[in-house]
Fold this sequence. Notes:
alpha+beta
Amino acid sequence: MQVSHSAPLLWSKHGSDEKSDCARIIVKTKVLRILAFLILVVTQAGQVHAHSLLVKTDPAQNASLDHSPSRVTLTFSEPVNPLSSSVKVLDSGGNRVDDRNVAFSTDRLSMSVGLPNLAKGVYTVSWAVVSGVDGHPTSGTYPFGVQEVVPPPPSTPTNVQPSIVSLIPEALARWTFYVGQTVLVGGPFFYLLVLMPWLRRRATAPNPLPPSQSPNLASETTTRVLTVTLLGALVASVGAGGLILSQTIAGQPTSIDVFLFSTQIGLIGTSRLFLAAASAVLLLVALRIGKAGTFLTLLLIPGFGILLTSSLSGHNAAVPTLTFVSILADWFHLLGVSVWIGGLINLTLLVPILHKLGLVHQGLARLVPRFSRLAIPSVGIIAISGLYSALFQVGSFSALFGTEYGQTLIVKMGLTVVLVVFGALNQLVWYPRIARALKIVGNTADVLVNLSRRLSRSVRIESILAFGLILIVGLLTALPPAYQVSLTQNRPALQATSLSETSRNVRVDLSIYPLRVGTNSFAITLTNTTDGQSLTHVIQVNLKFTYQDSPLPSSNTSINQSSTGEQYLAQGGFLNQPGNWVIQVQVRQTTGFDTFAKFNLNLQAYPGIDSAKVWEVPYTDPKSIIGYQALVDGSGNVWFSAPFPGVLWKFVPGSNSYTRFSPPDASSSPGPIAFDSNGKLWYADQTSGSISYFNTVNSMFSNNFPLPGSGGSPGGITVDSNGTIWVTDSAKSRVLAFNQTSETWISKFNLKTPTNSSDLGPIAADQRGNIWFVGDSVPPPNAPQTGHGGGGIGKIEMLNVMSRTILNFVPTSPNSTFLTGIAIGSNGDVWFAEHGSNRLGKITPPYSNSSIVQISLDSINPNAFPWGLTIDQRGNLWFTEHIGNKVAFYDTAKDQFQEWPIPTPQSDSKFIALDQFGNAWFAEGSTPTVSNLGVLALQPSAIGLVTSGPDYYYQFATLGAIVAMGVGTVVFFIRHRRQSKELAAPVVKTQQKKVR
């Protein structure tokens, strides 16, 4: 006897089939439109991080500036929503002083506001943003001073994160939505793969139920599943609406319509609500006209779309690398949860129907193994995808145990284990006992009733625990990822070094920021140890700085009154040498004797250099990649050129996100690059023989400016202090100047080099206005190639701009070849890289009668062959070993070298640039489609890199767990199938067995 699953279930069918077909077509059309939008969002998912945390400020936090800045710029770890984000600059009286014109970068990672000419004083930057990915708000404040000393920053994070308590409303909305989503998506899978096969098998069994009961079984169980799934769709709709409401309240957008229909998070929210409502309509139609199998199959389309909206607005959508893979992993994670827990809820709510029809024993004996067959791979998918996500969202054991996200994740994993234990108990204990009892003692035995009651109770407990698990997931989604919180909490550049000494009855606390060679801020706090109150009756606080490593005169400064009411503040370049220092604090009081406290310091010239190593941050491009030159802008962002495929890249340390910018001319090949003072990144296009610029403020490219004449090829580019663009023409052996105001070439500076040098390359401007560049002389005919050069003699040339004369320097003992890099120190020393002869060279002022000093690298690394170089504030060199595949440091005072290997073999790294933390950046060369931005990191955590050993242990442990879960899932599934076949086989009763 066949059981019809297409019979009417609640109401009779009304209306024509034509109208029903039209309704179905309309529903399908809307669903396809929503899915098209979601697919578009997936393909355009950016490389960002969950929650918009502040990673960079300009001016820097607690900076004391000599003059007023023109703008305040904030950079975040994730794109922000412009409609709900703001920044204000307040004076000490709380009055707003900015121009109220907030601008956002094209990638929405930065926002800035203009400033007038600020007077002397301390100012506060107050900001509040809403993530453009997940809608979470963050806010914070920080001070800076203009001609005023600012107190050193406390060791508290700049970002103000919502507490767990404040996240409860949003977590409840997410819990409601996730419960609805889980039931909505799990219902079709349970019906199509668990319930329907059992109903069909019963309908074709040789001993079916009486005709009066068979329709009731199919109709009532199917109606129950459809009703539960409909309830899930309605709950998901309520949760989706609640999320939109909470995100709107948090963001406070100026226009609700624009927020909902013109922002990514708004479109995702409205799509989620539409898909949930469309699902409810489908289920109502299914309940009215029948055809449960057809409509539940169709329901998978909006169901999958709803899961995708969750993945697109979750933490995995913000993973900096392999974003699409991370979104896909999260989607499978949510699918596994829905199939497992959604099916479990349906199974739990189906038990009363089976009790009512007297089929609870047979039903559980057949449905539990079928459901287990579905649940086991689902749990495996959940575990594997969850562990994959944890690689990016946590990143270390310290972040796992030391952040709210990590601790909540531990609770989630523990509850998941409990759920798995209950599932294993049902599958391995209660189900086998019921199956054996049915074969041995029949359907009416008391022991069978008891076993079924235990199984039903276990399934109910498992369902209740599942609701708790979904609640934790809602809270977890509302929290920022552990790895990101860990980075912002441990950013050393934002914290002061605190020292304390007690003398007599006075405790002297000294804070120093940033504790580096050069200018530092000092804050002294004085406490009376007898009553714990701030020390009163202070006349003056004197600081004396004494260098211990050589007989330098001591430096002194005095503070006559408390700068803030409790702290005595000073600033200056008193710690001007690396090494050992003694800071003496003298407190003069109106009552009693003076108090003295001494503090011993060891000041490192390069903090972190002994533990430094080269890191590589990968990026991908659909075409082959040749990274060329890297530069660091005033905000600490790293820009680099890639002549092939002809693009510019921006990398934001901290968030570790890349943005790709393609010139309008597809044939462009940006090579040498240089910044001007207005935020324009100028680049030389060696293919088209022109120069252009990219405006980093508005993300716009300029037109091409071809070199004068024809056949030119720019070899290097630089910008002098007047904003003039200087270019070497390697093809025509000339030096050119470009006026960026009029956007024209300056005709009087179309100068041919007197030696007719070939292959003119890098160019630089010194502080006196001279222009320096390097090149090789034209080699004689049939001259053999020497080293890595072209056979010519390397030359360094200086253009005196005032006289328009070019002075030529030629290393003579021995001859240098193939000069590739040039850098000029603050003292006027000109350094250059002799790539072809494996040397460094130096010219010292006065240049007219200066000789060239050459330093061979053969004793350090005979295969080094340096390429690009740069000079730090202390006059020391950092350079790349192009063939040696290393980054090197040369201490010019001590005549000492230090090297660090680059992990990627033959990385083809050329030019190098330093950031404000002393980290050295370089772009690696040619690879198929994946390349690296490399950095020798002296302060790795300051730029968002993981450093501690346990982080590697965490990664290995997580990867091992992924493999173990995959193997365990396969093994357990095979064992389950074997057990199910054994229990389903008929039993030959040779003797009566006692069943417990």
